[in-house]
Amino acid sequence: MLKKISIIGGDFRLVSLAKMLEEEGVEIYTYGMEKIENKYGISCTSLEEAISKSEIIVAPIPLTSNGETINAPFSENQILVKDIIEKVDGKTFIAGAIRQDAYKMMEGKNIQVIDMLKREELAVLNAIATAEGAIKIAIEETMKTIHGSNILILGFGRIGKVLSNMLKGMGANVSCEARKNADLAWIKAYGYNPVPLEKLNENLENKDIIINTIPYVVLDESNLNKVNKDTLIIDLASNPGGVDRQAVKKQKLKFVWALSIPGKIAPITSAEYIKDTLYNVVEEL
Question: Residue 31's pLDDT is what?
Answer without folding.
Answer: 96
